[in-house]
Putative ABC transport system ATP-binding protein
Amino acid sequence: MPAMQAEQTETSGETLLKATDIKRVFGKGNAGVTALSDIRLDIPAGSMVALKGRSGSGKTTLLNILCALDEPTEGQVFFRGKEITGLPAKERNALRRKEIGLVFQSFGLIPLMSAYENVEFGLRIAGAPVKGNREAAERALERVGMRERMKHRPMELSGGEQQRVAIARAIAHEPALLIADEPTAELDSRMGLQVMRVFRDLVNRSGMTILLTTHDPGIMELVDHVIALEDGKIVSETTNHKPLI
Ligand SMILES: Nc1ncnc2c1ncn2[C@@H]1O[C@H](COP(=O)(O)OP(=O)(O)OP(=O)(O)O)[C@@H](O)[C@H]1O
Ligand SMILES: [Mg+2]
């Protein structure tokens, strides 16, 4: 990925996430589906990267492998230079809990809990020590502009606000990497833009690295790098030297 590597040396120089020759086959023999092949990528630390591609092109499969939820059939993934493929489940879970935050299209908030309780509960189930949880949850809600509304339940919030609470839950443990699978797909363009602004702020102010998937052409202008997938292969990579946010 020449364009991204050039950018990387210009900025922080560190590669947060690297994948080499990833292949993922679901099932066996004639019934096997090759969801990904020949995937090589470098995600520079402190950047916002979008994976785009039609439905079925392999975006979610790739995200799952990059965040150690799934193992590739072939190839290797490195997080800060350390190989994470082949690690025992316990170590992969520990890596995710400490270093990675996940955001999904459908927000995934618990309806009976307030915004604050959702974020605090997220910290608890990730095994964070209870001491300091209140401050961490409130800090995360502040970062996404939802502290004022933290006593509200999800049904009292707009879709964009719910997604911001879900982002607060994903970043409360201050991960280095945020992975978001179609985070704006259920939002109108104005609310989608709010979410993208929150992401940009996390990159600029905390040096977080964000990898997201999207179908929305408008989002390509807002990120630092775009990687296009077609039928499980990378077909292009572009760098925005002046992203619009
Ligand atoms: N667990 C699985 N078992 C079998 N095939 C799978 C599995 N998961 C994904 N696939 C197949 O792998 C391919 C890539 O799927 P994936 O979900 O990664 O696509 P996507 O780009 O995320 O699509 P969408 O935009 O619809 O979310 C598809 O052909 C899909 O049917
Ligand atoms: Mg998907």
Q: What stands out?
A: Residues 189-206 form the longest helix (18 residues). The chain has seven helices and ten strands.
